[in-house]
Design goal:
Helices cover 36% and strands 19% of the residues. The protein is an alpha+beta fold.
Length: 147
Amino acid sequence: MNHQDNCPLCSTDGGTLIWRGEKLRVIRAAEEGFPAFYRVVWAEHAAEFSDLSATDRIHCMDAVALVERVLREQLAPTKINLAALGNMVAHLHWHVIARYDWDSHFPASVWAPAVRERDPLREAQLAQRLPQVDAQLQLALSLWAAA
């Protein structure tokens, strides 16, 4: 596997590991204020999406779409945000974030300044649902990988 010693996503999972396959893993990130913040992380070190082969790009995006679908089905968010910035960590990963019209930054990006105070009660209620979401993600990803 292509590995970079100074890359945090090469040396750690990058969050709570939900599922690991041969080519990628799905983690739940600890992002304050955004409990349903997931990442699809490519296993090998690649800085850009275009570094992947056409087949691997399809594989990666199929995983991103599957995570999005499960979050939509399980959590009914106002919107799902997808992003692959890599400005801070130049290791290919996609953010898949369930967003709600009550969250502190909505409708702006999670990286923009807050537009309202956080709602700790709603955040906690959402966080309580995540073990079930994680189980559904594990099942869906395992079935997808086996197909």
